[in-house]
UniProtKB/TrEMBL annotation:
It comes from the Eukaryota. InterPro entries: Calcineurin-like_PHP (IPR004843), Metallo-depent_PP-like (IPR029052). Residues 24-246 form the Calcineurin-like phosphoesterase domain. It comes from Galdieria partita. The lineage of its organism: Eukaryota, Rhodophyta, Bangiophyceae, Galdieriales, Galdieriaceae. Signal peptide: none annotated. This is Calcineurin-like phosphoesterase domain-containing protein. GO terms for molecular function: 2',3'-cyclic-nucleotide 2'-phosphodiesterase activity; ADP-ribose diphosphatase activity; CDP-glycerol diphosphatase activity; manganese ion binding.
Amino acid sequence: MGFSLVVVLVSCYRLYHKKSKNFSFAVISDVQYSDKPCKQVLGMERRYSEALVKLYQVIRWVGEQRSLTCLVHLGDLIDGNETEQQTMKEYSQVCAAFSESKVPVFHVVGNHCLDVSRDTLKELFPSTGCFYYRWEPNDEWCFLFLDCLEISCKSALNEQYQQQVQHYLSTQQPRATRWNGALSSTQLDWLEHELQHCRQKVIVFGHIPLYQEASDAAHLVWNAEQVLDILHRYRVVAYFAGHYHRGGYAVDAHGLHHITIPAICDAPADQNAWAKIRCESNRIIVQGYGTVPSRTWTLSLCKTRHK
């Protein structure tokens, strides 16, 4: 979906949703579409070619709802294919599906998204050349979207970043894999600045998990501790991620909820994977569909960080 259309949709939805402090949005992750055979990856069947049909199913469901503020996709639009031409074709097919959404669509960068250039991806993002941003669904809530692959094997944008990639890969930690990435110091400063000046409750979104208990040791942001140190000091109530295709959920010692959404491309042939998230003044309700579990939790003021 071109971002000009997103702006129009956002303006329309704000007129309604700012009147009501409770709101709902849909979330999916790891469409990872590709026209190639299924493959066993980490003990799961990756059903690449079925993912586009399942994405259209979600888009149709979104269109049937009357109360959704937006749709969030947590990264990995495509898997990438043998040729650049085929990869671009598959990317265009996925973008065409998202363009049919009746609500605004917000993306984060996934590692497989970078099988196309950032110049190509920027059409999906609100700020040219910047892949982290904020959006406010109403006066009580704020969404922050992170670029967890800003420093990564697929997008080392300058020599300094390339040196940092080599540093992270040399640490011998389980997370030191080529499919993970890190936030730059510039992005960390931006995150801190946004949270310092935010008086709403905050939900943060990124492709890669930050907390091992909601993922595993091999699917974490390289500098997750730096990111969490910032999030724990402010009014952040949840962090949504994808990347770890099994999905997961955990609450850390600071009361921050970590939700990892199962991948669409790994859903069994007769299932899908998406969720409707309802945000209320004192609780969050996750209504899962397909392989996504449902859960509800109460927002505890003593664990909501104030600044």
